[in-house]
Each structure stands twice: as C-alpha cells, then as structure tokens.
Design a protein that fits this description.
This protein is mostly helical and about 90 residues long. Helices cover about 70% and strands about 0% of the residues. Helix 1 (about 5-15) runs antiparallel to helix 5 (about 70-85) and helix 3 runs antiparallel to helix 5 (about 70-85).
C-alpha cells in the first residue's frame, strides 16, 4: 500500500469536497499522511476518533449506522497505517 492509493481510498469514501465537519477534519489529516511521521499520524488519528466518536456511533430509526463511509475511511487508514511506512524500516 502506498500513500497515494491510501489517499485515493479516503477520497472515494469522503469525497473531494466534504461538507460534514468530521469529514473535513479527516481529509486534512489524510492529506498529511506522506509528510509526517507515522507516530504523529497515529496520535492525530486517535485524537480525531476521540473527538468524533459520537458522530461515528450515530444510528438511524432502524438502528443502522448513519455515517458508514466516514467509518470506512477511518478503518481503512487505521488498518493500513502500518503498511504505509514499511519503506522506513528498510532505509
């Protein structure tokens, strides 16, 4: 997994011009992936998740999650974070 493709996955889920506050913040976080160290991104990602936990857990009348695409973008970045910086191990 490279940084470019991870950013494209995130863009697919939260769009190029997000309107929701959580998605705007996540897009800014995702744009910094290639420029900042892994530990910093991990801290920012945890902070973002803590701030928007209620937003991500919202459910509709039929008890289904509302913000599925935002959750998918978050999970994708969280899962692939280890692989994005694999090249640093071998430098």
């Amino acid at each position: 997994m490279c940084v470019f493709h991870q950013q494209q996955i995130i863009r697919r889920y939260i769009t190029k011009n997000p309107k929701l506050e959580a998605n705007i913040a996540f897009k800014e976080l995702a744009s910094m992936i290639g420029k900042i160290e892994k530990e910093t991104i991990k801290l920012w990602l945890d902070d973002w998740h803590f701030r928007y936990k209620k937003f991500l857990d919202e459910k509709n009348d039929s008890n289904k999650r509302v913000h599925i695409r935002t959750r998918k973008a978050y999970r994708s970045l969280k899962t692939n974070l280890e692989y994005l910086y694999m090249f640093k191990k071998y430098e």
